[in-house]
Amino acid sequence: MKKIVVLTGAGMSAASGLATFRGAGGLWGEYPVQQVATPEGWFKDPTLVTNFYNGLRQQLLTVEPNEGHRILAKLEKKFHVEIITQNVDDLHERAGSTNVTHLHGELTKVCSSKSPNNPKYIKTLTPEQYNVQIGDLAEDGSQIRPFIVWFSEAVPMIEKASNLVQEADILIIIGTSLQVYPAAGLIHFTSKKCPIYVIDPNSLSLPDTKNITQLKMGAVEGMTTLYETLLAKK
């Protein structure tokens, strides 16, 4: 069975109504990166950071997976599909995808502020627990923080992701500007023969040394089109 590896970014979830971080009207315009997405911001004002992610979790409750998410889940019936996502939402899982690697953490989880990547202290929240409070502690006694990879922090899952891309028979990239590293560098790990499909309505700077086809479409339209192409070539 052919292995399809999919790299998704904010444009994947934007089609479900989730606000993106970059671009016009993005969250970084309202909340500077330094305040809510860095260890320094957390230490300076943990209340602000906690409330910011509480708000993002509440927004999660108002959205559903879009048709693009559902098509990726449906592909599992025909291919071995591995999804690598830069998104911190759970829309891929809610659509039915079973192999999802989150590069930048998961919004529905919290962790220790002393040892953010220690699995002993990572906890999945139920919707009733989405409003985290200052004073809520991890099992090591530290204040719980969002299980999010902030700027300047290491990306623990990048090695797994690069290995997946190396093994891909087909790589699909959806809704990412390919500007955020190390995720943007994953495109360079494909084999020479691996076809790469990029779904994004914007003009992107793509390497000319790779076998790339860009579909200048949004996530839903692009995956609807590509699904038929993949089945025809199977």
Number of helices: 9
The run of helices and strands is EHHHHHHEHEEEEHEEEH
CATH class of the largest domain: Alpha Beta
Mean pLDDT: 91
Largest sheet: 6 strands, parallel
CATH superfamily of the largest domain: TPP-binding domain
Shape: elongated
What is the name of the CATH architecture of the largest domain? 3-Layer(aba) Sandwich
SS class = alpha/beta
Q: What oligomeric state is this?
A: single chain
Q: Which percent bin holds the helix content?
A: 25-40%
Reported by name, the CATH topology of the largest domain is Rossmann fold
What is the beta-strand fraction?
15-25%
Number of strands: 9
Alpha-carbon distance between the termini?
Answer: 10 Å
What is Rg? Answer: 18 Å
Compact description:
With 234 residues, the chain is of the alpha/beta class.
What's the arrangement of secondary structure elements?
Layout: E1 3-8, H1 10-14, H2 27-30, H3 33-36, H4 39-44, H5 46-60, H6 67-74, E2 80-85, H7 91-95, E3 100-102, E4 105-112, E5 123-124, E6 144-148, H8 158-166, E7 170-174, E8 196-199, E9 212-215, H9 219-233
Helix pairs in contact: 6-9
